Hints:
Order of helices and strands: HHHHH
Low-confidence stretches: none
Number of strands: 0
Largest sheet: none
Shape: elongated
Number of domains: 2
Helix content: over 70%
Amino acid sequence: MKSMLLRDSVKKASQFQKVLHKDPTQAEKLLEERRQLLEQAKSASEDDDSHSKVSLQSHWERLKRDENLMKRVLSNGASLTGPDNVENVRTMENMYELQEANSLDNSIRGTNELLERALATREDFEYQNSVLQNVSDRINHVALSIPFINQVLRKTKSRKQRDVILLSVLISTLTLLFFFFH
């Protein structure tokens, strides 16, 4: 659930970037919606998960940067009139910096999600390994407790090996015959 809330926050951030100079009131609404999403994600996050804390912290920092940008845009008159104005140039520079920071945040977020998936997969493999080890131990215990099962397993193993050797000899002979007479 937390990851879904954070994805929604990222969507709101990209919408914020698009409407910031066109419609400041809409941008303010998006900022407030993002704040609410992040508060919900904070309440849904686990306290002992350090990765979750770092991810959530980066979202909060991005929200603060966007709020500061919003304040600057509103103080400069909410729209850019031309590149001659020093304030407008600074605002544009801030926009470029913010876009770079957003792209870095997105890269970090994607990497963090991949790491979360990899850790979950690793835990699943470890669990499966323990289950399979348990099954193997039980089978070995049963094989040792009943003597004739062990003998049957040895005979089937030797028959398998004999069959493999016979098949490999037959296939190699046929392959050689094919090359000689073709």
